[in-house]
Amino acid sequence: FTRNNERVFVIISDALRYEAAKELLNLINKEVRGMAEIGFMQGVVPSTTKYGMASLLPRKELVVNDKSDIIIDGISTQGTANRGKIIANYSDNTQAISFSDMVDMRRADYKEAFEGKKL
After folding, report:
1. pTM of the model
2. Which of 4-8, 11-15, 67-71 has the highest mean pLDDT?
3. Which of 3, 6, 63, 85 would be a feasible disulfide site paired with 71, CB 3.0-4.6 Å?
4. DSSP 15-72
5. In this predicted structure, what is the pLDDT of residue 14?
6. How far apart are CA 36 and CA 82, in angstroms?
7. Which helix (DSSP H) or strand (DSSP E) does residue 99 occupy?
């Protein structure tokens, strides 16, 4: 996921329209040191958050059980903590955080949450 000791932030959102993402990209490139890039992934059907969010995560195996729970590599995709565990299986020094948790963060909170993290 990361190259040359760079830090990468990935927004996993099944409902973020490409046009809105481009607008966010322009804002980030204007306001923040560094460089931001944009990429996309094709969604899945049915196009509900539960399936869309899971389809964007790295995986070797994706299973939908008889209760319609989505399991990636043996870990439920329900909740940010579980999605963080899934991502951590594919890259060191990771941090998963929900947008709602980031909204009220101050600069010091950002530093504490992301210091030493690469993804």
Report:
1. 0.76
2. 67-71
3. 63
4. T--HHHHHHHHHHHHHHSSS----------SS-SHHHHHHHTS--S-EEE-TT--EEE
5. 64
6. 26
7. helix 99-102
pLDDT of residue 3: 66
Residue 54, number of CB atoms within 10 A of its CB? 23
What pLDDT sits at residue 47?
Answer: 78
Q: How many CA atoms lie within 13 A of 35 on its CB side?
A: 2
How many degrees, rounded to 5, is the angle at CA 92 between CA 21 and CA 115?
70
Is 52 within 8 Å of 14 (Cβ atoms)? Answer: yes
Q: Which of 14, 85, 86 is nearest to 56 (CA)?
A: 14
Both structure tokens of 119: 């993804």
